[in-house]
Amino acid sequence: MVKIGPITLPDSPLLLAPMEDVSDPPFRAVCKASGADLMYSEFISSEGLIRDAIKSRQKLDFFEFERPVGIQIFGGDEEAMGLSAKIVAATQPDLVDINFGCPVKKVVSKGAGAGVLKDLDLMVRLTRAVVRNTDLPVTVKTRLGWDEASINIEEVAERLQDEGIKALTIHGRTRAQMYKGEADWTLIGKIKNNPRIHIPIFGNGDIDSPQKARLYLDRYGVDGLMIGRAAIGYPWIFREIKHYLATGELLPLPTIDERVDVCMQHLSRSVSWKGPVLGILEMRRHYGNYLKGLPHIKDFRTRLVTAADYDAVVSVLEEIRVRYSGFVAERHLVGFSDSQVAESSCAAL
Questions:
Q1: Which CATH number fits the domain that encloses residue 116?
Q2: Domain presence at residue 346
Q3: Which ranges constitute the DSSP H helices of 164-277?
Q4: Which end of the chain is more exposed for a tag (fewer CB within 10 A), N or C?
Q5: Dihedrals φ, ψ of 323, to 5°?
Q6: Which of 107, 109, 87, 105 is nearest to 96 (CA)?
Q7: Does 102 qualify as catalytic in the annotation?
Q8: Please, are residues 130 and 74 in contact by the beta-carbon 8 Å criterion?
Q9: How many domains does the chain have?
């Protein structure tokens, strides 16, 4: 078992990454159903919470079936981070997570997200402010460093642990890399094997298959894995990894019926949570990912993103079910590209 304060997770837990404009309650629901062990909200601006910004407040929403669930906040001001920790705690999630990893320019320029990597003393003070203002476990997600010349994750891990965080997730890239190139897990493994580190260490970056999940767990010894891009349009990645870790065997890929069914579940939850207009509009970003790999799908996809109401979308999805009955896409054809994630992952405040 893996412990994050009072939270107990199974061995080698699988965490769903917080992704802006992706990791909302409807998306988290389909990932939970497929086996995600711990999930996080989209990241929330501490300043937005204090201003009572509607979008920031809405991101605090979660449902009991999601537990354990964490709310992730970001910001560069100690007082604001401390106050936002209190606001988050009032909604009674299972933990509070701090984002010290978002590389997007408009976040970094505010001295938040990965921008804090340039000032380790500020990172420590921000963490202290959150820890001191909540009784919930506090965790952190961050990167290796600002750039190749200033990788400081080993010192970060020790100093943040000293401030009282209960777990650390490390994305194996620097801020300068954004989402490009291959994630380097060498330092993640080194931190996990540091005898001074006693909190769980979770690795993040490029986990996109059951085989790679097994390899990275064995090679780097981390306590668990955080999965982001590979789950977009493919929540089955969680069940596939769990099955492979337990048996050494690969599950069959999802059928077209499964893909349509889960897409419909996602749609239904989106409409229920956001309303019939916004729920339909915001689901449009997901159809291409659920349907990747299906040949000659362009016309269907166009109809999906122009359908004006729930019944019209369902009708198109049912046509897709019939048209592609028996078809199974290749595993590597699902998920967002690097450029798509760079645009959406931390793009909105």
A1: 3.20.20.70
A2: no
A3: 186-192, 210-220, 237-247, 256-274
A4: N
A5: -65, -35
A6: 87
A7: yes
A8: no
A9: 2
Q: Which residue type sits at 80?
A: A
- pTM confidence score: 0.89
The residues, ordered by sequence, that sit 6+ positions from 277 with a Cβ below 8 Å of its Cβ are none
Q: Judge contact between 349 and 21, C-beta under 8 A.
A: no
40 and 185 assigned to the same domain:
yes
Amino acid at 336: F
Catalytic member of 31, 102, 263, 346:
102
Whether the CB-CB separation of 81 and 75 falls below 8 Å is answered with yes
* Gap between the Cα atoms of 322 and 144, Å rounded: 47
pLDDT tens per residue, the chain (349 residues)?
999 999 999 999 999 999 888 999 999 999 999 999 999 998 888 888 888 766 677 788 899 999 999 999 988 889 999 999 999 999 999 999 998 877 776 777 676 776 788 889 999 999 999 999 999 999 999 988 877 777 889 999 999 999 999 999 999 988 767 778 888 899 999 999 999 999 999 999 999 999 999 999 999 999 999 999 999 999 999 999 999 999 999 999 999 999 999 999 999 999 999 999 999 999 999 999 999 889 999 999 999 999 999 999 999 999 999 999 988 766 544 443 433 444 344 533 3
Which structural domain, as residue segments, surrounds residue 299? 256-328
- Residue 46: CB atoms within 10 A of its CB come to 29
Burial class (CB in 10 A: 0-12, 13-18, 19+), 220: buried
